[in-house]
Amino acid sequence: MFKVLNAHFSYYFTPMFRICLLIILIFTNAGVLYFEPLLSNDTNNVMLPEIEVIDTKPKSNSAMDFSPTTIIRKAQIEIVQPTQLSDILIYAPSVQISNYGGLGSQKTISIRGTGSMRTLVLLNGMPINSAQNSSLDLNTIPISMIDNIELMRGGASAIFGGNAIGGAVNIRADGTPTQLFNAGLSYGSFGEISANATGNYIGNGGINYISATADYINTRDNYPFTYNVFGKDSTFKRENADYSKLLLSVAGKGTIDNWNIWSRAIFSTTDRGVPGAILQGQVNVSKDRMKDNDYILIVNANRGGNTAVSAILKHSKTEYTEPSKTSDPISHFSLYDVAVNAKYGDNAFGLSYEILGSLGYATLNGDMLEPDVNSFVNRASAALGLRLEKNLELQQHNIKLTAGGRADAVNRPNDDVETAMSATIGGIYSYADIPIELRSNYSHNFRFPNFNEMYYRNYGTKDLLPEFSDNFNVGIDVSILNHIYMSIDAFYINTKDMITAIPTSPIAWSAKNLDRAVSRGVEMYISTNFTNYPNVILSYTRQQTLDKSTASITYNKQLPYTPNEIASYIISYSISEFEFGIKGNYTSFRYLQGDNDDNAVLPSYFTHDCFVSKQFKIADIDWKLRLGVQNIFDLQYEVISNYIMPCRAFQATISCEK
After folding, report:
1. Which of 94, 326, 447, 583 has the fewest Cβ atoms within 10 angstroms?
2. Looking at the DSSP assignment, which residues form a beta bridge with residue 111?
3. Which residues, at least 6 apart from 283, have a Cβ–Cβ distance to it below 8 Å?
4. Bridge partners of 298?
């Protein structure tokens, strides 16, 4: 791995890389100068206020310690005040959000250039990716019920199971509420209206709390954009992009017979238009629509900190309407997915160990499945794993080691059984009294093909092989008196039999296994936490994701839609009852085709947002008024080709809690 990074040093040392490296040096020196009086031999003792840093430990799973993990806490979410989950995830390193434009479009997450199907999303430790397409629409989880987010970069199949080739996002929604209620109302450009309310009963004894949440969002999403048609700029409005969503959720936490039990039920219904692309200089006025009903029930139970059992039941119904089709204009899909995980941990022979097991079953009914499966497919799965940890304290040297493995099995067509082995090994080194940690990790990961890849009409391929990857990561974490946190990581991901869409004719595509693909890069991350100074979060990623299939005509070419550089920043400052902030995201150019033709390129973009908020109190209720501007400089850009994103937009929010 080090030879690979050495050989490509000049590739990574770009102007944007130099800027980020300069920022790191500035922050390092500033931190030393700021704290130098406190570190001197002066006889005075200085007591610093206790401050919770965004990236402090512990994490919900100690296995995350060995891979770079960004913890997005409730306080940071409240600063950014995202409308959707994608609006906050994008500020972590190596994160790319697929976005077809506007509030109502589906949004998926990719980590380290691996694609959304290789990024596992979990809710309190239970996977919630769809068995149909291996992805998750990030609109499924409302911001109002999130306590914090753990974003782990690097392979995690031995810990969480399949799909975690690029990384895993664990959404925590089980924190005990501290308010009796909270509510918010927003109004924004292009007809955006959103409202949320949560009421809590805080009990004692056997019942810890009961919480009920309602979220509603509606938008016309009919924003204007300019497009060049035959050498002349013309202004259009986005059509058929309206979106409405209602979500209801009930959660509770309590104790029964020494078991701590948490549960949450979520129901959401969505109705959205599916806008057309811009093709050959004209806006494709699509009238397609999609309706979704989603149900999630999740239960976590643990006893004594050693034994834990989790279960999840998911059901989704999708109706897709294509009025332009003369036959079968309406198609339906119905997906059921149930899983149970069990975990037992203890100590023996100076080691901490963790044994885990998993059972799952999923079914899919759909009009667009291959005829020979009679519109119905199913899959049963089972897994068994073991992970070990050892802490070594050698005088002032601290070493933490882990090793683990997992075996997964699923049924295949004709009752064949496909198996996959995954493994992880890692180490952390630190020296007493020096706030620096060195990390290294290797993992072997997998992903089974999903229902769509195997059974979707005129696309699925039943004999697809599972994907396997070998992931390497080395990194360093630095913390300066709990006020400045920095991390730098280098990664290398070698994926074999990657499943991708291959054209079989000018109008048809098919799911096929590539021979090999490689993703490699470096990440930098900085966050600060001060009481009387502006706080900053910076992230930068330089990466390559190349087709390494030896027989491919696109050998050694960048995979489509994978940017070489991603960067983001958040700067916020609080004074008295006011809070000010500015944030931004940068994505470099992306190729649209595997041959990396210079005529098929999406340009880079750098967007900036700003906000100001004011806190006040009325009748013992805490209120906050917030005004925000997205895309300050009115930039027109595309994340997905031919789907132009909104230009400048405004939003006003008022919220309260008690």
Report:
1. 326
2. 95
3. 227, 236, 239, 276
4. 264, 312
In angstroms, rounded to a whole number, what is the distance separating the alpha carbons of residues 132 and 369?
11
| Residue 101: closest CA among 189, 221, 233, 228 | 221
* Listed residue (597, 468, 488, 602) closest to 541, CA to CA: 488
Gyration radius of the chain's alpha carbons: 25
Q: Assess contact for 148 and 169: CB atoms under 8 A.
A: no
Sequence-distant (≥ 6) Cβ neighbours of residue 115 within 8 angstroms: 166
* H or E element that contains 30: helix 15-39
Mean pLDDT is lowest, of 106-110, 217-221, 232-236, 408-412, for: 232-236
Look at the block and give the residue holding tokens 């139970």.
301
C-alpha dihedral, 589 to 593 to 598 to 603, nearest 10°: -20
Tokens, residue 634: 């009115």
97: Cβ contacts below 8 Å, ≥ 6 apart: 86, 89, 90, 107, 108, 109, 110, 138, 639
Chain centroid to CA 329:
33
Q: Which residues contact 513 (CB under 8 A, 6 or more apart)?
A: 464, 465, 467, 497, 498, 499
Cβ pair 401, 392 in contact under 8 A? yes
Q: Residue 305: its pLDDT value, please? A: 80
Q: Is 524:497 a contact under the CB 8 Å cutoff?
A: no
H or E stretch including 2? helix 2-7
Check if the beta carbon of residue 179 is closer than 8 Å to that of residue 658. yes
- As a whole number of angstroms, the distance between CA 222 and CA 238 comes to 5
* Max Cα-Cα span within the chain: 86
DSSP run (H or E) holding 232: strand 232-237
Contacts of 68 (CB under 8 A, 6+ apart): 93, 152, 153, 154, 439, 473, 475, 487, 489, 523, 525
Q: Report the length, in residues, of the chain.
A: 658
79-83, 292-296, 573-577, range with greatest mean pLDDT: 292-296
- In whole angstroms, what is the distance from residue 478 CA to residue 474 CA? 14
Q: Please give the Cα distance from 102 to 219 (Å, whole number).
A: 9
Note whether 297 and 291 are within 8 A (CB). Answer: no
pLDDT at 552: 84
Task: Tell me how far apart the alpha carbons of residues 257 and 262 are, in angstroms, rounded to a whole number.
Answer: 14
- Distance, C-alpha 640 to centroid of its chain: 18
Cβ neighbors of 387 (< 8 A, separation 6 or more) are 63, 158, 159, 353, 354, 356, 402, 403, 404, 405, 424
Q: Enumerate the β-bridge partners of residue 342.
A: 309, 357
What does the alpha-carbon distance between residue 208 and residue 224 come to, in Å, rounded to a whole number? 49
Global pTM value: 0.89
Omega prior to 58 cis, within 30 of 0: yes
3-state SS, residue 40: coil
What tokens were used for 77?
């979410």
DSSP 470: E
Res 10 pLDDT > 80: no
Is 480:436 a contact under the CB 8 Å cutoff? Answer: no
Contact by Cβ (8 Å): 111, 225: no
Q: Which two tokens stand for residue 386?
A: 């073991």
Question: Exposed, middle or buried: residue 656 (CB in 10 Å: 0-12, 13-18, 19+)?
Answer: middle
